[in-house]
Structure formats: C-alpha cells, structure tokens
Design a protein that fits this description.
- This protein has about 210 residues and is an alpha/beta fold.
- The protein has 2 domains: about 35 residues; about 170 residues, Phosphoglycerate mutase-like (Rossmann fold, 3-Layer(aba) Sandwich).
- Helix content is about 35%, strand content about 15%.
- The chain has a 6-stranded mixed beta sheet with strand order 3-2-4-1-5-6.
- A hairpin with a 4-residue loop joins strand 5 and strand 6.
- Helix 3 packs parallel to helix 4.
- The protein is globular, with a radius of gyration of 21 Å.
Length: about 210
C-alpha cells in the first residue's frame, strides 16, 4: 500500500470513529426511543383526567386516488377520501371513545376532506387548522410544523383532552418513526416546551382500555 493510500485509510478510519458517538446519540433520541408500556387501566384513568392530546391519523382511504388535481381544500371530488370502511371505522372509534367516558374538548382537523370527515365522524365536530395540515414526512424548513409542535407541547384546558385529526406525514416529521397507520392515534403528553408520546393505539384496540368486570 502506498503512503498516500495508507494515510487516506487512516483518515477515513478516524472520521468513522468520531462519527460513532453521534450515531449513538441520534439512535437514543426522543423520536426513536421505544414507547414505555402503559397498562390499559392506568392509561384510561389518565385520559379521563384530561391533559393529553389525541393525535389521530385519518381513517381508511382509497389509495387509488391522490390530491394532485385538487383546486382547493373544499374540492373533495379531487382528493383522496375516506372509503365506506373508513367512515365505519371512524364511527366505531367515536362510539368506543364515548363509551370509555374520555373527555374531549376542542377538535382540530387538517383542512383536507378526509381529515375533517374523520374528526366529524369520531367527535361530531372539527375545526379546520393549517397548523395540522398535511405535508412532507420530513420538513426541511424548521418552521413548517412549528404550529403542530406548539399544539403538542401545550396543555389543553383542565379536565379535557385535545383531539387532532390529521395525516401520517406531519406527525412523522415532528415525532419520528414509525408512521401511524390509518385510524391509529398517538396519545401525547405535553411538557410545555416539548412533548412525549405515551401510547399509540390502533383503531380496533381502543376497546381494550375498558376495564374487565
């Protein structure tokens, strides 16, 4: 091996060794930490007290459609919309959450038709907000999801939970992988200047929070 190739190899090796601590730190960041297992009864008790954010990805949609031809958020015919199965999924979610007596105050939805409809079918109301609208899975502009981060970090009024009906990409951008499935919810605890995810609940598993008799 020539002197040049040898020293280049040594330089590359040193660079790799310096990068390892950073890689470990990134792997251990908040967004990639495994969720703490919360017993169902404890989680239900906490949700009944209020103080959490329930971030729902919209329920099942028709993936043969997209939003490329839409002219406005009100142009539902040109968007990817809920299927009949998705509408039934949202209605079932609403019935289960009401049966669990989980108090929900404000309901915010991305202005797309599928997210507004999800909020309406689950909670009977939905306030459109660009703070939670769809977008890229990774935001190059740090301000792109500043509104969503602020919502997830701020405590809702006492005794209630805030509900958000949105998309997979915005949550992935601010909270990291894995992506929420359609109809899946993340239970978020606001921390003032940050937030933590305490649970992810698939749409069909909300009933498991109900205490057994």
């Amino acid at each position: 091996m020539s002197d040049f190739r040898y020293y280049r190899f040594i330089a590359l090796l040193a660079l790799l060794l310096c990068a390892l601590p950073l890689a470990r730190a990134l792997a251990q960041s908040r967004t990639s930490e495994p969720l703490r297992e919360v017993p169902a009864a404890e989680l239900l008790q906490e949700l009944r007290k209020g103080g959490y954010i329930l971030y729902f990805r919209h329920t099942a949609t028709d993936f043969s459609k997209n939003d490329d031809a839409m002219t406005s958020f009100e142009d539902c015919a040109s968007q990817r919309n809920l299927t009949e199965a998705g509408r039934a999924q949202a209605r079932a979610l609403g019935a289960t959450i009401r049966a669990l007596a989980i108090p929900v105050g404000k309901v915010i939805a991305s202005p797309y038709c599928r997210t507004v409809e999800t909020g309406m079918l689950i909670f009977g109301r939905a306030e459109k907000s660009n703070d939670v609208r769809g977008g890229p899975g990774t935001a190059n502009n740090p301000e792109r999801y500043a509104g969503l981060r602020k919502l997830l970090s701020a405590s809702p009024p006492a005794g209630t939970n805030l509900a958000i009906a949105s998309h997979g990409n915005p949550f992935h951008a601010v909270a990291g992988p894995p992506y929420l499935a359609e109809g899946e919810a993340a239970v978020v605890r606001p921390l003032g200047n940050d937030f933590e995810i305490v649970a992810r609940i698939r749409s069909e598993r909300w009933g498991e929070l109900q205490p057994t008799r």
